[in-house]
Amino acid sequence: MNARQLLAKISNHWPEQVDVAQRERNSSGDFWFPKLAQINHEVEDKIDYDEVGDWSNIAAWSFYQAVTEYARELAEIDVHRLTISDVPMGIFDKWVRFNLDGSDWSAQRNEYTGIG
Q1: How do 17-19 and 81-83 pair as beta strands?
Q2: What is the sign, positive or negative, of the torsion defined by CA atoms of 39, 45, 51, 57?
């Protein structure tokens, strides 16, 4: 499994553009985007985990983290619209690798080939 395959599994569940003008600072000072959290919950509800398995768990959570990181970058330059297809593959790959680091994911970590 590689990052492009995972991204294809999950990104089509997201709208192509998201208004990220509404944002708040969390306790650590980072931006938090209620709209992104809402979309992520909707995406998680749509996924048939029995059909697609553990990779969808990793893909959904990692993509939400990548979208949030990218939205924070945009917020710093006061951009209010995020285009999903512009989320950098490298950010998504970073979060997939981070999330596969746990001992429960050793089988998937061995299968993951990155951006490849």
Answers
A1: antiparallel
A2: positive
The pair of structure tokens assigned to 62 is: 């990692």
First to last CA, the chain: 9
**Other Cβ atoms within 10 Å of 28 Cβ, number:** 6
pLDDT tens, N- to C-terminus, the chain (116 residues): 888 888 888 888 999 999 999 998 888 888 999 999 999 999 988 877 665 567 888 899 999 999 999 999 999 999 999 999 999 999 999 999 999 998 788 888 888 988 86
How far apart are the C-alpha atoms of 60 and 103, rounded to whole Å? 19
DSSP structure class, residue 85: G
Please, which residues bridge with residue 32 across strands?
24
Report the C-alpha dihedral over residues 75, 24, 82, 62, rounded to 10 degrees: 110
> What are phi and psi for residue 17, nearest 5 degrees?
-130, 145
Cα 21–Cα 25–Cα 27 angle in degrees, nearest 5: 160
